[in-house]
Design a protein that fits this description.
Strand content: under 5%
Shape: globular
Number of helices: 22
Helix content: 55-70%
Strand order of the largest sheet: 1-2-3
Structural class: mainly alpha
Distance between the termini: 19 Å
Largest sheet: 3 strands, antiparallel
Number of strands: 5
Oligomer: single chain
Length: 529
């Protein structure tokens, strides 16, 4: 790997004629990620993602103007269609890998009839649920739930594609493109294709983070407005997804400023697009905090245990113990960033964890060895936040609420870590000096990622269809106990085809940008940080 000490220069962030391709890249990535999320959405049994029945009921009730509901010992009571309420009962397979996803419930006479249901998500911020709940107003059977999932996947993919479009507009983007591909784990696609705010929270936060990095490293006036708009849109949505979301967004905004001297930060903050974006994100954050504080959504389960059926281990444990319990389980929790599907009861195959662990390890090691000066400080701050924030959050909650942390909660910082380090390495490593080596490396990374994506998808679909020890013939060509609409083989082929197309486009883009980078003169290097 060849590296170079960059020299400061001014100039546009893209080569002449490159700008239209940014929007083409955005649209292609949006479509591909939406298709992958939609495949997960249809191939996952209804209710087979973390707390999804509660989120489904919440979304359908918010779409009907019931933002909270009535408190009760079973959660918040709301009125929703019968097929939505039914999801609370259709989870006989949760925590039972020996059972396929068929609970044998009798068909509903009138699936669209309104009935009473309960949700443990009653106090959650309604913004995400407004975005995804509206299909239940148009569709009056389980197709409404699949539609909600697909809408959630489209919005999740939108923010991921916006982040990618900023990466694509950078010079030295071969490594950031690969880093983005690594960041799109099977778990991110699974969450995106579920009725769950986790996926949108993660990609919207990433869009904020990448937009700030681009503005800090390359304050090109011609690109600043579009980047500020992406930061505003991502920030406004992200802070209103979950109770902890404002914390992740705050870190996504502040950490990139480590890369430049304070005088450059001040100069950037004086520009009108930045002022407008900052004002919008601040107002959205105030609204989010007002909802969280006003409803007491983070601590309601602690202060009013009679209003929730859930309870957690560890209540009464002191904060210091909570911190160390979570810290020593960092690796275990990190599995939830790669692939712990279902109700955290369906892990991806070991080979999938190995692939992502190896690639993340290579990225971290390269960053800590090759980066210098402010880039190295940036890497350590980002890595420290990723490692230490979960223990700190758990320490603050454990005494009253017990151990509630799950690996997927750290998905926003995980995406920021991988993409942020990739951007720094892209500025540090001269890929064009060894194009053949990097082409082979790109092929290796893309092939193992494609294998991991397909294997995780197939393994999860097979678990719900015929159980992990079921017949492969029955799974693909027989009549399994459960299968998604259209059948197992159809969606396995669809998912595989989309992954192959995405992989081919990644390889083609890396080959192209390597040739583009080779045309850059040494004096056109990005500024050193």
């Amino acid at each position: 790997m060849s590296t170079t000490a960059s020299t400061p220069t001014a100039g546009p962030s893209t080569l002449p004629g490159d700008r239209p391709r940014v929007w083409r890249a955005f649209l292609v990535v949006w479509v591909l990620l939406s298709a992958l999320c939609a495949s997960w959405a249809i191939a996952t049994p209804i209710g087979a993602s973390p707390d999804e029945p509660a989120h489904i009921v919440k979304a359908a009730s918010v779409a009907r103007g019931q933002f909270i509901g009535t408190p009760s010992k079973d959660g918040h009571r709301v009125t929703v269609p019968a097929y939505v309420a039914r999801t609370q009962l259709d989870t006989c397979f949760a925590f039972h890998q020996e059972r396929p996803a068929e609970c044998g419930l009798a068909p509903l006479t009138d699936p669209g009839a309104l009935t009473t249901s309960y949700t443990t998500a009653g106090l959650y911020n309604p913004v995400y649920y407004l975005l995804v709940g509206w299909p239940t107003l148009l569709l009056h059977d389980t197709s409404g739930i699949y539609a909600m999932r697909i809408v959630s996947g489209i919005v999740t993919s939108l923010f991921a594609a916006l982040a990618f479009s900023i990466l694509w507009g950078m010079r030295r983007r071969a490594i950031p493109v690969l880093g983005f591909a690594v960041a799109v784990t099977p778990m991110l696609l699974f969450l995106g294709g579920s009725v769950n705010p986790n996926g949108i929270e993660a990609t919207a936060t990433l869009a904020v983070f990448v937009g700030i990095i681009a503005a800090v490293l390359d304050p090109d006036r011609s690109r600043l407005l579009s980047r500020a708009m992406i930061v505003l849109a991502g920030g406004a949505v992200a802070v209103n997804t979950r109770g902890l979301s404002p914390l992740w967004v705050l870190l996504a905004i502040l950490i990139p400023f480590v890369l430049v001297p304070w005088r450059q930060v001040v100069a950037l903050l004086r520009r009108p697009p930045v002022i407008a974006a900052a004002a919008g994100v601040v107002l959205a954050t105030i609204a989010a905090l007002a909802w969280t504080v006003g409803t007491n959504s983070l601590y309601n389960a602690v202060e009013n245990p009679d209003q929730t059926p859930q309870s957690f281990l560890g209540v009464g444990t002191n904060p210091l113990s909570g911190f160390f319990i979570t810290l020593v389980r960092t690796t275990e929790y990190s599995h939830g960033l790669i692939g712990i599907f279902g109700w955290l009861d369906t892990p991806a195959p070991p080979e999938v964890f190995f692939i992502w662990s190896a690639l993340v390890g290579i990225l971290l090691a390269a960053a800590l060895v090759l980066l210098r000066s402010r880039m190295l400080v940036f890497a350590w701050v980002l890595f420290g936040a990723f490692i230490l924030l979960p223990p700190i959050v758990q320490a603050a909650y454990i005494t009253g609420g017990g151990i509630i942390w799950q690996g997927r909660y750290n998905m926003p910082l995980f995406l920021c870590l991988l993409v942020g380090l990739s951007v720094m390495l892209g500025r540090r490593i001269r890929v064009e000096r060894a194009p053949a080596i990097w082409r082979r490396f790109g092929w290796l990374v893309v092939i193992v990622l494609a294998f991991g994506q397909v294997y995780a998808f197939e393994n999860t679909l097979r678990r719900y269809s015929v159980t992990p020890i079921g017949s492969l013939k029955q799974f693909l060509f027989g009549t399994p106990a459960w299968a998604p609409p259209g059948g197992n083989l159809l969606w396995l082929l669809v998912f595989t085809a989309v992954v192959v197309v995405a992989g081919w486009l990644v390889l083609r883009s890396i080959d192209r940008v390597t040739r583009v980078d080779a045309r850059l003169a040494p004096t056109e290097e990005p500024a050193a940080v």
